[in-house]
Description:
CATH architecture of the largest domain in chain A: 3-Layer(aba) Sandwich
GO molecular function (chain B): transmembrane transporter activity
Distance between the termini of chain B: 5 Å
Number of strands of chain B: 4
Structural class of chain B: mainly alpha
Number of domains of chain A: 2
Structural class of chain A: alpha/beta
Order of helices and strands of chain B: HHHHHHHEEEEHHHHHHH
CATH superfamily of the largest domain in chain A: P-loop containing nucleotide triphosphate hydrolases
Radius of gyration of chain A: 19 Å
CATH topology of chain B: ABC transporter involved in vitamin B12 uptake, BtuC
Oligomer: heterodimer
Low-confidence stretches of chain A: none
CATH class of the largest domain in chain A: Alpha Beta
Mean pLDDT of chain B: 88
Radius of gyration of chain B: 21 Å
Strand order of the largest sheet of chain A: 6-7-8-3-9-10
Strand content of chain B: under 5%
GO cellular component, one term (chain B): plasma membrane
Number of helices of chain B: 14
Mean pLDDT of chain A: 88
Pfam family, one (chain B): BPD_transp_2
Helix content of chain B: over 70%
InterPro entries (chain B): ABC_transp_permease
Distance between the termini of chain A: 23 Å
Protein name (chain B): ABC transporter permease
Order of helices and strands of chain A: EEEHEEHEHHHEHEHEEHH
Number of strands of chain A: 10
Strand content of chain A: 15-25%
Amino acid sequence: MSQTPLVEMIGIEKHFGGVRAVDHVSLDLQPGEVVGVLGHNGAGKSCLMRILAGAMIPSAGEIRINGTAVTFDDPNDARAAGIETIYQTLALADHLDAPANLFLGRELKTRFGNLDDARMLEESRKVLARLNPNFKNLTDPVSSLSGGQRQVIAIARAIYFDTKVLIMDEPTAALGPSETAMVADLIRQLQAEGIGILLVSHDMHDVFDLCNRVVVMNKGRLVGAHGIDEVSKDDVLSLIVKGELPADWSARNLEAVQ
Amino acid sequence: MSQAIKPASKRASTPLASVMPDAAKIHRLSALLTLLMLIAGFSLASQAFFSVNNALTILLQTSVIGLLGIGMTLVIITGGIDLSVGSVLALSGVGTAMAVKAGVPVGLAMGLGVAIGAACGAVNGLVVTRAKIPPFVATLGMMLMARGLALQLTGAAPISQLGEAFGRLGNGALFRMVEMQPNGFPKVIFPGIPYPAILLLVVAVGATYLLRRRSIGRHIYATGSNEEAARLSGVRVNQTKLYAYVMSGALAGLAGNVLMSRLVTAQPSEGVMYELDAIAAAVIGGASLSGGVGTVSGTMIGAFIIGILRNGLNMAGVSAFIQQIVIGAVVIGAVWIDQMRNRR
């Protein structure tokens, strides 16, 4: 791993009054790597992801992208650096249609600065077709779409632009089995393209299926960062619940190495 | 949402899915139908109602509600409300009149009046976005402050004798044709299109363009639809809201100039409760007080429904008190229809 990491988060802290939501956490991500971020609700993983997405300003710590220190004051800064986020809530404006949501905040415009709705519709059609060939309701408000279709719009928005880092917060929570498989395929495809992915998930199966590494947070602190081959599901569960590996882990791991 | 229980994959083929986006249009169509029925009803009830002169009177009366309503629509779409427009209207009119009295040319003074309105709107916007005060409270405060300032500046007395030029905006008309009769009295062949009506049309077209074709318009809808989502998508929601309040204030200032010019007198106590007419116009026209929904064309229909109700009830000799009851019922009815639509 002599390569410069795509993302380095160093000593990140976030305090709310006396509460340390994120307590001196460091994390890095290589190009083409999928890192699972696990932990209980309230363990601080969403906070950490929001900080990287520019939606939250850290109390302390440094973020480096390709080795260069950056500061994100709002989500636009993070997006400009190639960091896209798929939020668990999907962050869609219900009254707008799919193209309007896809291009929200970075609308395509004509020469006179007017909205270029025709081109946005065409581009949306292309990127949505790649994710779901059956997607047809492009001019309906997204409130009238199914959970899966809404998820597809949120994913499309994250991969359409020049993405280098993708943060996925529970991307399959609202999906059925076939759509979940589609997302898994997509993650592998993006990984092959050299995009770094942070996958926040509760689904142990997905994590072990897709991730190269896992990091586990507990009460705001990073309690474990392991290659996916070094740990079992029980080990990870122990990290999530107790904040530490099982007592016999190092012994077992030594045996495995020998 | 009875279709929601069907499997997701079948959603695309449900008939309701293709009808849903037209619900807003249906609402506007029903408002338009109401408008036409009102016109027909009042025409039958009173001979004088259906005449060119009365139509122009209605245009004139509605232009003030219309201007306020357009600004209100922008604010309501962002999920806010502006209760200060009636007072800001008075303060702007008073400001213009005082400038005219001080010797400032009328055009420039009116520009100043609009700027005063925009400044009030900017204060509203900043209080809402920076101090995080709910719009209802923030603009209620501005409603009191602007009214108080207008009364304080004038000693609660109207400013009159403002000259002919001051009255031109409110009383002038385009294509007015007058013929001198042999007996020395002028005969009006065509009363002309009142300037306030032309102004309203220009503002309505401009605001529609803004909402439909510019990114600020899209951001206004997105902010009202889901503020957090808009923020995470990179929309500068605070600037977007500020923009809406400034526009509402500026249009209130413009409406104030139109109204005071029509009276050729600046009345610091003018425009009380006008904010309610503006809100009613927007809501009757299909704007949703929970944000994300509303159109300028709908608000125009709403403004004319209120204008024609007022005018027609007056013509039919219905007392002002009964008029309030009727308009109140219409507003509740419009919101009820809106809720039925959303519940479906």
